[in-house]
Design brief:
By secondary structure, this protein is an alpha/beta fold. The protein is built from four helices and seven strands, in the order αβαβαββαβββ. The chain has a seven-stranded mixed beta sheet with strand order 3-2-1-4-5-7-6, covered by helices on one side.
């Protein structure tokens, strides 16, 4: 597993030594970032259920101005911090800000007046059936205008998409491979 593009391209990512983390594949991340294109430059990124931090780190490598990583697994947090140091070194002298928040994403309260341009969300897949409405409601409170939410799930991925949201893109390699949806809130 590695960073697939940008200044830190090729940097290997450390995986947590324990815990049930399912890292985003290099193939899927490359497809997602190819689809996002110029939206990544200068973006404020939120990586929810961050795991290794691969999505947020990839965004930083490709020019995002900041990334906030939400994760509750302590082994994953250690991996995110180590991976962040590697990406910061590769991206120097370009500065970016980052924050690693130890929290359950479903209980996280977005800071007031903080908005994100790109939100990557790769939860345990079982959560989609029960928690999708709560998660969308929470994320909607911290989105910038024209924000995108990128959801990862199994190949047969079809989470409930709430009213006032539009699927921009569905990226999938095959039935038994992870898939990603790129969603945007409808314009008022």
């Amino acid at each position: 597993m590695r960073i697939t593009g940008g200044q830190a391209r090729g940097i290997p990512l450390q995986l947590p030594k324990r815990g049930e983390i399912r890292p985003a594949t290099d193939y899927l991340r490359a497809a997602v970032f190819s689809s996002l294109g110029p939206l990544v430059a200068s973006a404020r990124v939120l990586d929810v259920f961050a795991g290794t931090g691969a999505y947020g780190l990839e965004a930083l490598s490709r020019g995002a101005q900041s990334a906030c990583f939400l994760e509750k697994n302590t082994a994953a947090i250690a991996a995110i911090r180590a991976n962040l140091q590697s990406v910061q070194k590769a991206c120097a002298p370009r500065a970016f800000s980052s924050e690693v928040v130890t929290t359950d994403a479903l209980r996280w309260i977005p800071p007031a007046a903080t908005t994100f341009d790109l939100v990557f969300c790769d939860p345990p897949w079982a959560l989609w059936e029960k928690e999708a409405p709560l998660l969308f409601a929470k994320l909607a409170t911290c989105l910038a205008p024209d924000a995108c939410i990128i959801l990862e799930g199994p190949g047969e991925f079809s989470p409930p998409i709430p009213a006032n949201w539009t699927m921009q893109r569905h990226l999938a390699k095959g039935k038994n491979q992870p898939a990603a949806l790129i969603l945007r809130p409808d314009c008022p």
